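Exercise 7. Predict the joint structure of the components listed below.
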Amino acid sequence: MHDIEAKSILSPKNGMNLYRGCTHGCIYCDSRSECYGMTETFEDVGVKRNGPELLEAALKRKRSRCMIGTGAMTDPYLPIEKTEELTRRCLEIIERRGFGFSCITKSDLVLRDLDLLQSINSKAKAVVQMTLTTWDEELCRILEPNVATTYRRFEVLKELQKAGIPTVVWLTPILPFINDRPENIKGLLEYCGEAGVKGIITFGVGMTLRRGNREYFYRKLDQHFPGLKQQYMRSFGSSYVIGSPKGKVLDKLIGDFCKQHKLLHGGGPVFAYLDSMEDDRQQLSLF
Ligand code: SF4
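Solution:
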C-alpha cells in the first residue's frame, strides 16, 4: 500500500476512484490493461488520502446536484477500506451535500455503510451495483479469489433490498468455455429475481482481453484450467472482444428474463437510470 497525492478526484462524468490497483484478484480484470498506464504492481494499492477533501471542494463548486459514481477502475470496498474509510468519508460528504451516489462492488463491506446509503437514498438516490459472474461457488473462488463469493453477494443484494436500496447486477464477464453455461446464467438470474434487482447489465456475452490483462488471464488459465489457453488462442487470436460461442442463446435467456420481470436491461437503459437523479419509480415507468 502506498499514498497518492491526487490532483483531482471527479472525472468529467462525475466518477471517482479513491484507490488505484486492487487486491481482489479477479483473473479477468480489465483494469490490469496496459492502456491505463498502471506502472506499479497492481496489488500494491495506491490510496488517494486527499480524495475526500478534493470531493468536498468539487461538490461545493457544482451548480446542481448529480449522481456521483465509484468503482469503475477499482473496487471501492477493498479490504483496506475497513481501516482507511475513504469511501465512507466520501459518502458522508455526498450525504451532507444532498448528492446521489452509485457504486459498483463485489464486497460485502458495502453493508457497513448502509446507514449512509439509506440517508442518501431518502434525500436523493443511492444505487449499489454488484457483479455476478458464476453461480458455482467453487468456480467463483478461482475466478474472483479474494472477495465475497457469489452467494454472499446475493445475500448482500437481499439485505440492500430489505433496506430499500435499489440494486443493479453486472452479469459480466462471461468467460467462454468456463462460465458460459445456461445453468450458470439461469442460477444467476434466479438470484437477481429473488433479490429484486432493478436492472441487469451485459455487454454481449463474453469478455475483453488486451495487453496486460491478457497475459495475467492466460497465466491463471494455465494454473487452473490446463489446455484452455491454447483453446482461447486458437479460437480468438489476439481479438479484443472475446464473444462466447453460446452468446446468442445466453443473451436471449437474459433478455427474456429481463422482459418477463420488467427489469432494465443493457448498458443504455441501465446507465440512463444510474445517471439520473430521478427516483426509480419515475424512471421505471418509462420502460
Ligand atoms: S474487483 Fe474489479 S478491479 Fe478488482 S480485481 Fe476484480 S475486476 Fe479488477
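Discussion. Residues 125-205+244-287 form a domain with the TIM Barrel fold (CATH 3.20.20.70).
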